Amino acid sequence: VQLVESGGGLVQAGGSLRLSCEGSGFSYDDYHIGWFRQAPGKEREGVATMTNGRSTTLIDAVKGRFAISGDNARNSIYLQMNNLKPDDTAVYYCHAYKRAWGKDYNYWGQGTQVTVSS
Known about the structure:
This protein is mostly beta strands. Helices cover 0% and strands 59% of the residues. The strands form 2 sheets. Strands 2, 4, 5, 6, 9, 10 and 11 form a 7-stranded mixed sheet that branches. A 4-stranded antiparallel sheet has the order 1-3-8-7, with no helix packed on it. The protein is globular, with a radius of gyration of 14 Å. The N and C termini lie far apart (37 Å).
């Protein structure tokens, strides 16, 4: 099982980025999928989640600016980030989780850096 993120970079405040996370070795439909981020000196926090390829949630700090979506054919999920702010600067990780037969399955990508300049 592997998750590979891409799409991070340096952008000015107000700009946009689209992060991608391509999975292999499993099907996203079977998992709760999420995007997390970790800023320097801070704990990792959840940003957006998707369940069963349809139900989505976003934290208040990104509502109206970010959107999570998926493409089952490509086994990929995306995080569209608009109107970026310096506070969005962090390493972004995608995560897949399910619990089955009394066992937890957790997979993380390697992370992609997003830097927003003011």
